[in-house]
Amino acid sequence: MPDLLRIARGAGMLTLIVVYAVLVHHANVSAPAGRLAAVLALVPLFALGLALAWNAAARVLGCSLLAIAGVICWAVWPVIARHAGLLFWLQDVSLMLALFVTFGRTLLPGRKPLCVHFAEMVHGPLVPAHEQYALRVTVAWVVFFGTMALLSTLLFFFAPLATWSMFVNFLVLPLVALMFVLEFMVRRQVLSDAGAGHILDAVQAYSKRTH
Fold first, then answer.
1. How far apart are the first and last CA of the chain?
2. Which residue has the higher pLDDT, 72 or 106?
3. Rounded distance, CA 199 to CA 191, Å?
4. Are 121 and 205 in contact (CB under 8 A)?
5. What's the CA gap between 201 and 23, in Å, rounded?
6. Phi-psi region for residue 160, left (φ > 0), alpha (ψ -120 to 50) or beta?
7. How far is CA 32 from CA 22, 39, 156, 209, in A?
8. How far is the C-alpha of 123 from the C-alpha of 81, rounded, in Å?
9. pLDDT score of 208
10. What's the pLDDT tens digit per position in 94-115?
11. For 172, how many CA atoms within 13 A lie in the half-sphere containing its CB?
12. CA separation for the pair 125, 92 (Å, rounded)
């Protein structure tokens, strides 16, 4: 039963993501300065506030975020409605840059590369070849997220809004999935004697340690 619940939860989240992406793209193409686009642009902010408010440890922060966001939206609604596309771009590029920084800062001297940390969570102490490989994977993710942020910015400011919307709503997640698949295939070849593991092992290990 727990496995079925996890599958159902995952399928539900995937469905919500797809529906949201379709609605955002429709709004960007048909009425980028309309009410629907403005509402959709604010959904992630209020969803974050609700998620924090639902968590007892962050309830005050979540409620504060919801209250502040509500007041700001009420005060500047006409501006939000006219510039919903800009909010969509800010959300997308902020996420890409946050991931870029999250992976990139672990490459600084004295820090452990993030993918090395994930690999150790699954396999324990790594042999040198495995550690070097995980370092290179961390660099690859830094380059990937930096490239996604750059492409999103260039398309938003220099291409039609519909083109940018198609890229961020329907291509970014498949590209992330493709990165995982390609990395997994390369890892199975490069680390065939070091225990390549399953593609989701690190995610599962991290989830267990945080619960």
1. 19
2. 106
3. 13
4. yes
5. 33
6. beta
7. 14, 11, 13, 42
8. 50
9. 52
10. 999 999 999 999 999 999 999 9
11. 24
12. 36
| Nearest by Cα to 167 from 183, 181, 189, 147 | 147
Structure tokens at 160: 């039609």
Distance CA 131, CA 119 (A): 8
User: What pLDDT is recorded for position 94?
Assistant: 95
The band of 179, judged by pLDDT with boundaries at 50, 70 and 90, is very high
Contact 83, 35 (CB under 8 A): no
% of the chain with per-residue pLDDT over 90: 48
Kindly state the percentage of the chain with pLDDT values over 70: 89
Tokens for 3, please give them: 């496995």
Tokens, residue 101: 């920084």
Per residue, the 3-state secondary structure of the chain, as one string, reads CHHHHHHHHHHHHHHHHHHHHHHHHHHHHHCCCCHHHHHHHHHHHHHHHHHHHHCHHHHHHHHHHHHHHHHHHHHCHHHHHHCHHHHHHHHHHHHHHHHHHHHHHHHCCCCCCHHHHHHHHHHCCCCHHHHHHHHHHHHHHHHHHHHHHHHHHHHHHHCCHHHHHHHHHHCHHHHHHHHHHHHHHHHHHHCCCCCCCCCCHHHHHHHHHCC
Q: Any idea of the CA torsion for 67, 69, 75, 81, to the nearest 10 degrees?
A: -150
Q: What is the pLDDT of residues 117-155, one digit of tens each?
A: 988 888 788 888 889 999 999 999 999 999 999 999 999
